[in-house]
Design brief:
The chain has helices at 16-20, 33-47, 57-66, 102-114, 130-134, 137-142, 156-161, 184-191, 206-222, 226-230; strands at 4-6, 11-13, 26-27, 50-53, 71-73, 78-81, 92-96, 119-122, 145-150, 168-172, 198-200. With 231 residues, the protein is α/β, with parallel strands linked by helices. 40% of the residues are buried.
């Protein structure tokens, strides 16, 4: 099989699924609809599936005309073609602090589902109304991996991290007022959290959080002796 397809303006990585477990994902911002269509073509031919992130509705309309089986999720701004070949054990719970965080939370949820995870959502449970979060304490404790999305001061992941004995992936968002600094304030708050076992991805990076969560469930499903068995 070819390692990549040279389109001139793009060299499409066709070997990535073999190396990493997932095909190359297309970042939609900064690319024209026609460029994305040309990149999608060899990925679909090779893998039977493709994901495009950060895609505008205007570009999505053009691409769904070219690929009628593609599905566009407007809130997450993700275009999907095809489905995962396997489903992992366990589940990912995506939590967000407020409704304004939904685009990032949905980017995480849609991505994790497409990568083979069972996904549960728990939205608008920020610390300003802590009873909303505590009302779902038992459901939260049952999750295998938790993706916690928050803007403003970014306190929610620390609270959740103190409630569970599972990996917590924190996602700061660019939602907030002036001193929030477009997400820098919650990013630094999450990086300096006293809650152990928490990792942090970049601002608004729901995709990256979901990718990490999927790798955790993939490893758990395959078992700790997977690499030894392959060798």
């Amino acid at each position: 099989m070819k390692k990549f397809e040279d389109l001139g303006f793009s060299k499409v990585d066709l070997d990535r699924e073999t190396r990493t477990g997932y095909p190359e994902v297309i970042y939609g911002e900064g690319k024209t609809a026609e460029q994305i269509r040309q990149i999608m073509e060899p990925l679909i031919e090779t893998h039977g599936k493709v994901m495009v992130t950060r895609l505008s509705e205007e570009k999505a309309e053009i691409l769904t005309e070219a690929y009628p089986d593609a599905r566009y999720h407007a809130i997450s701004r993700i275009l999907l073609y095809g489905s995962p070949r396997e489903k992992y054990g366990g589940d990912v719970m995506v939590l967000c602090a407020g409704t304004s965080d939904l685009p990032v939370a949905e980017e995480a949820a849609v991505t994790a589902d497409w990568m083979g995870c069972k996904v549960n959502r728990l939205y608008d449970v920020g610390v300003a109304g802590i009873d909303r979060l505590l009302a779902y304490r038992e459901e939260i404790k049952k999750a295998s991996v938790l993706i916690v999305v928050a803007g403003m001061e970014g306190a929610l992941p620390s609270v959740v991290g103190g409630m569970v004995q599972r990996p917590v992936i924190a996602v700061p968002t660019s939602v907030g007022y002036g001193a929030h600094l477009q997400g820098l304030t919650p990013l630094l708050a999450m990086l300096t959290s006293c809650a152990s076992g928490m990792s942090v991805v970049n601002i608004d990076n729901g995709f990256g959080a979901a990718y990490q969560a999927a790798l955790i469930l993939k490893l758990a499903t395959e078992g700790v002796h997977h690499e030894t068995a392959l060798s």
